[in-house]
Amino acid sequence: MSENVVEIDIALPPKGSAGMGGALPYRRPRAEVRFSLENGEVRSGWVPPRVARLYEKALPDLPCTYRSAMDALMELESHVCFTALTEMQSRREHSSHEVRSKLQQHGFRVTSIDAAIERALDLKFLDDARFMASFIDERLRRGWGRRKIELELKRRGADPRALPGYPEAFFSAEDDAERARQLLQRKSVPETRAFEKLVRHLVGKGFSFDVAARAARERIDNGA
Fold first, then answer.
1. Helical H runs in the chain?
2. Nearest-5° Cα angle at 222, 216 to 224
């Protein structure tokens, strides 16, 4: 039975079409690549639209074997997957978990994603330790407390305990207290239940109750 491809058709998703949702992670619509064989059989491959557009511009010479046509499509997808990863990193640092999730949403295959992440890690273009250190530093400048920072890193699939010297190299009681004081200096003292409201504000920012309580008492004692 012949598996030579005699025609290749590209079906891009309609503009504005919704991706998959529900119990599955959200995924953007994908394009269908249809391979018509000499024997009348039609086989399909599903790829991100960006991959399909590039494939359409450089279709293999026909007739060709189904395997060679698919190999060319999958090789192109792997290349585009790594390019998409580098574009993400050029905008801001990401964790490996974030990169994987976003590439999955774009519709790339697991094998393409695994290869792209492994290559990026080898090249140090993707570095979870660097991401976490940068994230902590930037959030500290925003006035976040340690607990909120750790929760947000966990949500992004990163474990700060893997950082050398964590937490002592990144947090200190004196710095926490100073950041808490600075945050409250930008807030007026509430007329009612001032202590409760100021403490709740700081705890919501990720500070421990003890740090929040001391900063709240100091702010109230100093007045407006």
1. 49-57, 66-91, 96-106, 110-122, 128-142, 146-155, 173-185, 194-204, 209-222
2. 95
What's the CA gap between 130 and 163, in Å, rounded? 9
**Residue of 41, 39, 109, 55 whose CA lies nearest to 81:** 109
- Res. 15 pLDDT band, cuts 50 70 90: confident
CA dist 100 and 160 (Å) reads 19
Query: How many angstroms separate the CA atoms of 135 and 129, rounded?
Result: 10
Q: What are phi and psi of 92, to 5 degrees?
A: -165, 165
By percentage, how much of the chain surpasses pLDDT 70?
A: 94
Specify whether the CB–CB gap between 3 and 67 falls below 8 A. yes
In degrees, rounded to 5, the angle at the alpha carbon of residue 89 between the alpha carbons of residues 29 and 96 is 75
Query: What are the backbone angles phi and psi of residue 6, rounded to the nearest 5°?
Result: -110, -15
pTM listed for this prediction: 0.80
Q: Return the DSSP state at 166.
A: T
Report whether 219 contacts 212 (CB < 8 A).
no
